[in-house]
Amino acid sequence: MPKETISIADFQKLDLRVGTIIKAEKVTGSEKLMKIEVSLGQESRQLIGGLAAKFSPSELEGKQVVVLVNLETKKMMGLESQGMLLAAVLENEPVLITPQEKLADGTQVR
């Protein structure tokens, strides 16, 4: 079911960038959460996401992903998440949104 229509101005507020996962580890005490460090070129960010049930840390490390960079910071299980990885859901499993070809970390997605 489609969500409410937004304007192009609303869409342009999103800061979507390509990043490379440089470190991933399962969050202690959680079956689903993974702590992920993503390089965005000039900076790196810590993200917390529900990927641990599907991916091992070694499957994620080195993978390029799309990150919503300007999402407000949120604490989960005492850890700060500074953005969000984009993923689709297929049969209740996350499928990461990845670039078709290798791009520089920090490349904007429009």
From TrEMBL:
- Signal peptide start and end residues: none
Q: Reaction catalysed by this chain?
A: tRNA(Met) + L-methionine + ATP = L-methionyl-tRNA(Met) + AMP + diphosphate
GO CC field: cytoplasm
Quick one: where is this thing mainly located? cytoplasm
- Example of a GO biological process term: methionyl-tRNA aminoacylation
The record ties this protein, via PROSITE patterns, to: TRBD
Q: Which Gene3D superfamilies match?
A: Nucleic acid-binding proteins
Protein name (database record) = Methionine--tRNA ligase
